Amino acid sequence: MPSKLPNSSSKINRNFKLTIEYDGANFCGWQIQKNGERTVQEELEKACARIFKHRVHVVGSGRTDSGVHAAGQVVSFKAETRMNPLEIQKALHSRMPNDIAILEVKEVPADFHAQYSVREKTYRYTILNRAHRSAFLRQHAYFYPYPLNMIRMRQAARFLTGRHDFRSFQAHDPLRAERGTVRTIRQITIRKEKDLIHIDITANGFLYKMVRNISGTLIAIGSGQVPLENIATILKAKSRSAARDTAPAHGLCLLRVKY
Amino acid sequence: MPSKLPNSSSKINRNFKLTIEYDGANFCGWQIQKNGERTVQEELEKACARIFKHRVHVVGSGRTDSGVHAAGQVVSFKAETRMNPLEIQKALHSRMPNDIAILEVKEVPADFHAQYSVREKTYRYTILNRAHRSAFLRQHAYFYPYPLNMIRMRQAARFLTGRHDFRSFQAHDPLRAERGTVRTIRQITIRKEKDLIHIDITANGFLYKMVRNISGTLIAIGSGQVPLENIATILKAKSRSAARDTAPAHGLCLLRVKY
Question: Tell me, what DSSP letter sits at residue B94?
Fold first, then answer.
């Protein structure tokens, strides 16, 4: 009997990193739901199981809620395969619904983990700020028809930048055991492009619904419902009831994740 | 009995012009269908009937097919009402599904007719030209992953500009009695913005599916499937079979209508 050639037919357990985009409008968020609702994780795991002929557990950089979008979500998974990244990308694409796009597939060292290896993430909250709503942006921007003072919003944002206990901006989630409530916001930029206001927040990590709670509070400050000075009190209170309403999910998008 | 004050309770038959935006993805086009499918015209007529308490016939500047979008469709209708345009806009908005937005309501002279009074219209055909598709643009741009030569496309477009018999770019439609097949294309601009190619066509009128047929032909010329020189033969043939495939509906948007 001929001796087996090295690697000729042996399968390799390899680690892959995907960068993906999804339109959250018709998903019940990232994470697989017990009730079988449509989720991004489930679509990916179903496709991987078919491609690699074994069960695959895919890990996202973090969960996104129902209705939240991602322009650069990062996912990692281990698979027994000899396919190269481009082949995997094509195979995945052909099995994805058209509201998920696979932007990139890379092979990564075994210790890379899409969630634990995160260095920083950037989320964008988008507000449509004009008199009439938009048929096109109905699922991608929060329609807010009242005047917003950008200067006050930026001042409040500057106050939140840095290392703080963000408990006032954390929603309760029984499924999450948060590792404390101190995070570092590296940058908040608030830009206006025609009728759209983009709030981009980069941090080393986010508490549950933190971006939507900060955005809701910045909107309340911009509209004058909450005085700018209150931002200090809200942050110091370390209580969710101190901050303002959570801005709606459909205005939120995970822009990018750095490792 | 006191004499009636002028106009105190008499209703006025007035003519209104709406500018509206709609996301065509979930509509079976503009025109009311016999089978009861969801159309923009029907949504507007239903809402008008409720607001004005009488049947209202709304006229669009032209039909748009299933899946085609509009950023500036113009609509006219006559109604017996004493409401002012802003009140009508609000009343309509509150009754519209969120994939239709009422951008403007104006009162216009009795002889204004959204279809017959058109001077020119501009349509945009959008192509997503990159290696991977987009989750966000899946219903708003035609995904074409192969190289397109913009110079050749622009040369072909220049050839089509002006007054011509566009029969080669007309789809057969038993419901339409076209007034001849000669139209004047005032301008075609082809611009690339990152991964998107926009083909904007302005004309005094369009034949059925003319923009999608021209776009399909320009794509075939840009990709090299059809030599640039053939554009003259295609136009002269005055036969639909001479031109190329109709580009898909979801890449098309009615940008604006001038009167």
Answer: H
